């Protein structure tokens, strides 16, 4: 089975994914795939260079400076959309290749596909079922403030740009509530695996 994993920032997707990986799942993180294709010499990096030719977004070794690009696109919808038009198709193509490779070698292995913008990028079309990792908003904000040093305003700004928990719950097949203790989350993951 190919299982999509989604959830808002600070929901604890990483914990759930790490736990399922320890149980034998093969994990594909879409952000890591996008990072790989934007750093390796290839068509995606060439198009990114062209898009940001006036902004000097490459590091000294020729890779994309992700922090600089993130800052440039945060409030520039046009550039953000142009970058997504480059990255999303190339990322999806690589993900399809990875899933196919695992299915061919280990047909019974659980494959997890995680994306912060799961439905927005069409990742739901690549999976059999979708797991939503949920956490209460106040829990998410506390995690982000404690773990990443974000201000409450920054947390709320990021969360406002993401799909709502209500909409995600409606669109997903399974929900793990990660608002409580780690033990409670693990118990839900074990129930899901059965």
What attributes does this structure have?
9 helices; single chain; 194 residues; five-stranded parallel β-sheet; alpha/beta; 5 strands
Provide an overview of this structure:
The chain is of the alpha/beta class and 194 residues long. 55% of the residues lie in helices and 12% in strands. It is built from 9 helices and 5 strands, in the order E-H-E-H-H-H-H-E-E-H-H-H-E-H. It has helices spanning 13-22, 30-39, 43-51, 66-73, 77-105, 137-148, 152-160, 165-171, 182-193, and strands at residues 2-6, 26-29, 111-114, 129-134, 174-177. 27% of the residues are buried.
- In the sheet with the most strands, the strands line up as 2-3-1-4-5
Rg from Cα: 17 Å
| Strand proportion | 5-15%
Mean of pLDDT: 90
Helix count, DSSP H or I runs of 4 or more residues: 9
Total strand segments: 5
Helix content: 40-55%
Q: Which series of helices and strands comes N to C?
A: EHEHHHHEEHHHEH
Q: Give the N-terminus to C-terminus distance in angstroms.
A: 13 Å
Report the principal-axis shape.
globular
Secondary structural class? alpha/beta
Set out the fold topology:
Blueprint: E1 2-6, H1 13-22, E2 26-29, H2 30-39, H3 43-51, H4 66-73, H5 77-105, E3 111-114, E4 129-134, H6 137-148, H7 152-160, H8 165-171, E5 174-177, H9 182-193
Parallel strand pairs: 1-3, 1-4, 2-3, 4-5
Helix pairs in contact: 2-5, 3-5
Outline of the structure:
This protein is α/β, with parallel strands linked by helices. Helices cover about 55% and strands about 10% of the residues. It has helices spanning about 15-20, 30-40, 45-50, 65-75, 75-105, 135-150, 150-160, 165-170, 180-194, and strands at about 1-5, 25-30, 110-115, 130-135, 175.
